[in-house]
Every structure is written in C-alpha cells, then in structure tokens.
Write a sequence for this structure.
C-alpha cells in the first residue's frame, strides 16, 4: 500500500489504515517482562553467525550501544542501532520454497531474540521453511540495565512503549522499523536463488510489537508485500483492510493483560473484506508465551500455525 498515491479515495483509505495504528497506544511490555518479576542479568553480545547487515544505516541520534541481557532462561537485545537479518535455513532436502521473516517483540525497546526469534526460526526450518530473524532497530533506552529495569513513575512495565495518538506521528515513529522490514524482504528476494526461496512465497510473523511491525509492514511497507502474515498476541483493533491484504493467522490468549480484553475488531475487519483469516483465542497463556513450554494450550499455537500454512500450500514444494 503506497501512502500518498493518486486519488482522494486512496488517500482516505490510507488515513483510515493509519488511524488503526493509533489504536496501538496501550503501553506494550517486552514479552517476557509481562510474565513475572524474574531478575535481568547483563550478558555479552552473543555470536550471531550468518547475521547480515540490512544496510538501513545506524539509528539516527543513537548514543547508547547495543546491549543484551538474560531473563526467564531466555535472551534479549536492547539499543539495537543497526538492523540485521539472520537466515535459519532448512535442510536442502526439506526446503519447500516458502520463507518467513520473523519479527520478535519487546515494545520497540527490547527484542525477545530467543523465545520469539531464533526458536521460532528453528521450528520453521524443521518444517522445510527458510526463516529469517529480523533484528530491527529499537528506540533508545538507558545504557545501564538497572536503570532500564526500574518501573516508570506511572508504574508501567520496564521497556513500555509510550502512547502515540497522532497517526502521522505513529507512522513516523515506526519509520526505521518499517524500513528494516522492507530491506529484509528485498534481501530475501535478491538472494532467493541462493536460499532456495520462491520470491512469491515470503511471509512475515511477528510477536507483540513485532506483530505491530508486521501489520505496519503490510499497510505501509510499499514493496514488501508479505504473501501471508502471522499476528501473535498483537493488538486486534479494527482497521480498513487493503483489497490485496494477505491471508492472516492470529493467536492470542484470553488472559493476555494487554490485548485480551480489547476486542477482536481486526478479525471482523479481515472477514468483512473477505480476506482469509484464522483466529485462535486460547483460554490461558498470558502475554509473551512465544515458544516457552507452558502447561496452557497456548503452547500449541505453532503447530496450529504450521497446519494453517500447510492448508494454504506453503509447506509444500513449489510447483
């Protein structure tokens, strides 16, 4: 969808779609931080073999260096100033031509790189799907982890995303991340032959803030054009759906403290537009369940996502 293209009707549609992003004004906690008070601990930046600089440049005005920490037995990144894409490729004998850009969440201030990135990518690769973990640029946070970990004066969780009420400001605030996502799609298409990917079968899945980025990329990503999208515990506010909107898979827990009681207008919007959508509302799971093994049925979301992909023919060799 190209913003500002010809015709008042198109511009009005763009404004309506931008207005949907105003609904993303709830403070979004980093996925794992919403689950308990487990202690954060600084760690060295881990090796990221195969990570490719996406060439979108350093985050303007950034001064705090990239830093990583552990929590809940998982790994998180902060202050990402240079976007990268890490391929996690399937065994060539299993490769089916489908690819997925994986966008971890974290309120645009941290990234759940393990639970919502690498673990998801490995699970996709095991199904023959080429996966690419997007480490997108983040809003700056205090360089000191202890300062970052303190609750805000208003009592918001660490890393909470401040509200943005103006549509243009919301999109301007996501401009670096959308640019990173567009660059990720462009890179995968450029190297599709090398990675055994069908350029027409590249989807995107995002978690929490990563789900927001997935939706923003679908709405305003211009040449990105995901073939299909996954919105995992992202906001589900109603929106104006593009005529060419891709099939969408949605998973949310009813007890999600951020979005579990905010309505499901996005599902209705997709259905009204007669675009394919599958919605799984799990009774329990909270926010940020990702690939964590839990006793709740939300743990089964990935198997359902894989079944949905198979139903659409994306987990089959390209014809």
């Amino acid at each position: 969808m190209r913003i500002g293209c010809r015709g008042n009707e198109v511009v009005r549609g763009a404004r309506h779609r931008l207005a949907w992003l105003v609904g993303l004004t709830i403070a979004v906690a980093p996925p794992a931080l919403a689950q308990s008070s487990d202690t954060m601990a600084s760690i060295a930046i881990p090796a990221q073999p195969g990570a490719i600089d996406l060439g979108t440049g350093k985050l303007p005005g950034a001064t705090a260096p990239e830093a990583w920490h552990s929590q809940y037995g998982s790994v998180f990144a902060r202050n990402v100033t240079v976007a990268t894409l890490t391929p996690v490729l399937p065994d060539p004998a299993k490769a089916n031509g489908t690819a997925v850009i994986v966008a971890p969440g974290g309120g645009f201030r941290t990234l759940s790189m393990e639970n919502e990135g690498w673990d998801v990518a490995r699970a996709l690769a095991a199904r023959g799907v080429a996966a690419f973990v997007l480490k997108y640029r983040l809003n700056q946070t205090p360089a000191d982890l202890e300062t970052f970990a303190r609750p805000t004066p208003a009592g918001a969780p660490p890393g909470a995303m401040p509200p943005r009420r103006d549509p243009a400001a919301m999109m301007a605030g996501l401009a670096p991340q959308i640019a990173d996502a567009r660059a990720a799609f462009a890179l995968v298409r450029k190297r599709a032959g090398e990675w055994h990917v069908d350029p027409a079968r590249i989807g995107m899945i995002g978690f929490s803030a990563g789900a927001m980025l997935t939706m923003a990329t679908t709405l305003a990503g211009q040449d990105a054009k995901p073939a299909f999208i996954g919105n995992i515990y992202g906001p589900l506010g109603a929106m104006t759906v593009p005529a060419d909107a891709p099939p969408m898979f949605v998973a949310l827990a009813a007890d999600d403290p951020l979005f579990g009681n905010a309505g499901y207008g996005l599902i209705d919007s997709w259905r009204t537009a007669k675009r394919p959508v599958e919605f799984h509302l799990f009774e329990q799971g909270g926010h940020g369940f990702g690939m964590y093994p839990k006793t709740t049925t939300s743990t089964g979301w990935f198997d359902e996502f894989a079944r949905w992909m198979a139903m659409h023919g994306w987990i089959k060799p390209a014809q």
